[in-house]
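ok so i was messing around last nite and threw this chain in just to see what happens. nothing serious, just curious
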Amino acid sequence: MNRMTSAVETPPEIHWTENGETRNADWRSESGMSPPRRVVIADDTMTADTAYRFACEGTGLLWRGDFQNARQLLQALARRVDRPSRKSAKAAKAAKAADNAKQGTPGAIAMPDVFHRHRLTQSQRARTLGMVLIPFDQDHSVPLRRAPDVKQACTEAYGEVGRPYLASLRELLGIVGAHEWRKKGVIIGGSEAPASFRIHPHYGVFAPVRTDYAPLVAQAPLPKSLAAESLAFDIGTGTGVLAVILAKRGIARVVATENNPRAILCAKENLQKLGLQNQVEVVDTDLFPEGRAALVVCNPPWVPARPSSTLEHAIFDPDSRMLRGFLDGLASHLSPGGEGWLILSDFAEHLQLRTRQQLLDMIESAGLRILGHIDATPTHAKVADASDALHSARAAEVISLWRLAVTP
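result:
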């Protein structure tokens, strides 16, 4: 739950020399990447090896050639960054080190170090691949040969802009991909399930493509106290997916909270599409709304680590701030006999970033007790990817819905 204001803030400038003239434009980066300090002009005549050398140096490549050739160049750079032999050897070494650490082998690399090295590698990869720069006109059109129409996608990400700008091709492809997800939506509940529905995520709002946790909210037994007042809170609603599930389960009124402007708009649009706008209210606030409810649900970011960009706030929760905030405020927002549902993966425990005992201590110190929990096993592709540096943690991951109540 973090406000994302980059679409309306004054963007930084990027400067370069072209045809003997000093030029500048706005720099757009929703990932928070700073503009390259040095920029050279690149086109179809530049070899992938030359481009790779520039990119590794942190030199931006302002593309003036064919757009589709720029995409091919980006793919060529990715192959060089991800050289299979190096990647496999590094991943295998990291995975083995993590397993050795679990077994207490002397000299082994601890899992937190494996995790942080993995994140550093991913950050460096993103920085290198982000060096292919694309020019945009004020209306978000791309003045390159064979460039696609990306006006709508860029408007959704950047809003209206005041002048031409540059952005990385890698970010543009992510924006276009997010636009396609927004158009077609994500099926929640399975295409064959009678109660399935589509959620349409907006750019910058965490897309529920991992639907492992949704069935937990759909199947957990509802508190009996809902009979007295059919009211539930969904804390940090994002796309609104859990609020929709609660409404479809027959809860008469759901208050969904959020403080990310993009997520608020996204949730409201999803509720409108599903005809639930009168049943679910979206409130702009941090964590809890006013009052108490018989059911309070929260799916906070699962990993207690610092996000490196605004787009990572839905994944990483520094010092477990949102988790602690939810637990510490839950007792004062539950009606008598009510329950709090915490949806949380134990991935952080396998990364050794948080222990199970620390979680239990947080729950107890908040004046809460555990009524029980139901679990789900992740099914995403990385679970089976043995080359992934974090494979041992991913393979052991379990997602749980913790049923919490106020301690008598």
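not much to say yet. The first helix runs from residue 48 to 56.
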